[in-house]
């Protein structure tokens, strides 16, 4: 795949970029290693000042960054700007909290281990490779980079090949904030070059956000090299509506949860499970709101849903929908690609789904929702847990017993009650099963790429 900016709203190739060859890649990893030698000897206060300065730059550049994100992957302009501002918030969060998250943890009673003092200390590992996707070109990177740099690590970034301008911005913003030269370096390389970077002895760990196949490949290489890895992979998140739910609020939030970022989010709700007592009413509301969405130019403020980011992505989405329709699914809204230039797909709602349809078990990465009817919470749980994924989930109920049941039984990294899944700097983020392992954000995220060193003193 060429490293290029291709406008998904038109299909036009805007600009191509020369990939880094092996020598340039080696040089950039060397810069990151040299920066680590300097950075891990700095204080939290110094790193916090640089991180806040970099956050100021991101805020100042937010309008231009929004234009780049919309151009490269098609998200509506307002959502693109919101992504940039969320990044700045995350950077400031770690500037403020990193020292506390990584403070020495003393054993309350060191005499129990025959010591006068015993504690755990968190220390950085070194250069960490980040392999990142195109759907949140800034946020996916910053949620790793901010804690990693605040811990004293440095990073090299293999970004998706269709968001090179976002990658090159990230290549400079930390240095502009004051971090040592080379603290974060973008590698303009293809997927085939990733293995060599993982195996480079200067690279101590790897984090990947992306597809399940990509995660299996990268994790296996990291495992062979005995290097730490964090995997945030796909999701097919359930959105469960119980009889006690506020249906109007649930339907409105269901639409946002499905079509935000043009439906291209690992944590987007994708399967909507509704109790039979309220199914008809909810389905009518959901379908009406999906049909009312405006699909079009993502730079137009009136647009709700822009294009799918790549032609292949839209084709994959269409194949899943067409397979379901051919096998008997009912279309309540949408159901086909939009004719004309660009890679647009109608906001779609399908029901009457059966287990022989691919869409039941595979991830839909675009504005397509699947609607299921259930008779009991036990049946809802069976449907929710039947996929190989376990990223997040949402449950709409005002019944305390139902709430506790789903919190306890759902196989997911998160459960959101009467809301939709959102990642917050304050809360750990990640999945189980084929959705990956490890955690980002909160204290857990900054500790992932640290050596937890036990210190014992007699």
UniProtKB/TrEMBL annotation:
MF GO annotations: aldehyde dehydrogenase [NAD(P)+] activity; succinate-semialdehyde dehydrogenase (NAD+) activity
InterPro entries in the cross-refs: Ald_DH/histidinol_DH, Ald_DH_C, Ald_DH_CS_CYS, Ald_DH_N, Aldehyde_DH_dom, ALDH_GabD1-like, GABD/Sad-like
Domain Aldehyde dehydrogenase: 3-455
Keywords linked to the UniProt accession: NADP, Oxidoreductase
Family the UniProt entry places it in: Belongs to the aldehyde dehydrogenase family.
Protein name, per record: NADP-dependent succinic semialdehyde dehydrogenase
